What we know:
Mean pLDDT: 85
Helix content: 55-70%
Radius of gyration: 24 Å
Amino acid sequence: MTDTASIHDATPEHVFFGSNFMLPHNASAWSMAGMDPHRKGFMTNTGIMRFMAGNRTRVYALGAVFIFVLWANVVTPLWADDYCRTIPFDLKNTFHIVYGNYFYWTGRYFTTLITFLVLELHAYGSIFIFDILNTVIFCLLVHNVCMICRNVSISDQNTSNGFWDIIFVFLAVWWIPRDISEVALWKTGAIGYLWPMTGELWILRQVLARRLPFGVLSCGFAFFIATFLEPLSLMISMVLIGSAISSYRHKDPVALPFIGAHVLGTLFLWLAPGNYVRARTMEHDTLLTRLDGVFGNLGSLFDLYWLPFVIILLICHVSVTADMTQRHRMWKNIAIFTACAVTYMMILLLFPRSSLAARVSFPASIYLVCVLGILFINRANHPALRNRMVGIGISGLVIWHICICVPDLLRLAHISAIWNQQARIAGAGFEDVTLPRVTMGPHHKILYVHKDILFVGISPDPHNMMNVCFARALGIKSVHSQGE
């Protein structure tokens, strides 16, 4: 990693997590960053203006992303498992449930604990606090993708288009995964998938930049984040072990405490007795069945929503000459992220096919987003006309994004609000409640998950687990749906 790349990638978390971030030692590196160590004030006026202008555009872009994602979080209602965890707050009972889950259902101890605490305290405003925190984490994911792509860029890269870089990555993070609503807006799903993906991508970013931290806080974070998502945790632990071996062979410092903490977190997650208790309740399948499920999931990562992003990349790269060394470096790192996506999907062979929900493929989709990000962020300097075409293309994507997402999310919020209102009125005397049946999608499904839509309808069976949780959360005897 070059000295100037270190300057571009300097962020507050390097200090917080105890990174071994080093300042450049030669005058040319300071000069390229707009700084001059031999001049009074340390930073030239030109450097200050360039720094402020570049960061201002990034702030505007991340601010726009933050506002939209916060709105999306706020309007997204509780669904399915969310209702099952809105029980009266009792800390002793909560730890008892989470402890039981660890030994009899799932090893995701901290995931389950956080979810219960957030939803149990809903009467005290915890949902809104969660919405803000979840939005921040989503923005951190977008930031991490941008930075991990910039980490592999050339040192004299033009960074004047930082605004479009962030918007492009945000749109890709939203539309490339199969079901962003389930992994980023649904309360239970966001804690279980968005949060670990953001944390583990930050760790991968440190590995690629060869600056794994040594601090106590960073080790605690590594253990914590490794306990969230089994296949992702295992893959990053493998990457960290490989990084340690490589550093040892090159006689570089090895961040053994950090790597050890992450591996311990992976073991804590994978060796939980609950994982094996639950596995025995699932239908036994063969290797061929699992292969069919994994390859089906792998194929479903690619759909028509890739098309607008591919078109924008074609505008950036067709008929553009680039230095062969730079291009080789870019394709080498594209291969790294492609390998990460494929490796993650292959790890899913360890799990029964019945457990491979669409949301499980989210990390693989983010690694593919990194591929798109590398191609876009590291594009060559273009003439004004081509830059204008790129800007128009992304602006069109933003309009398309808003025209689809806003009506979808408002419709889902309206359905949930009507159900809650009708259930409370009809069930004021703790009675059985009948709600009109609502379905979603071309096949009229009660459970429908696709891109920005997560819908879990009320079943005709009052004994359905989701119906029971909904009724308990609203304080009614029972609930079921009936066709009009």
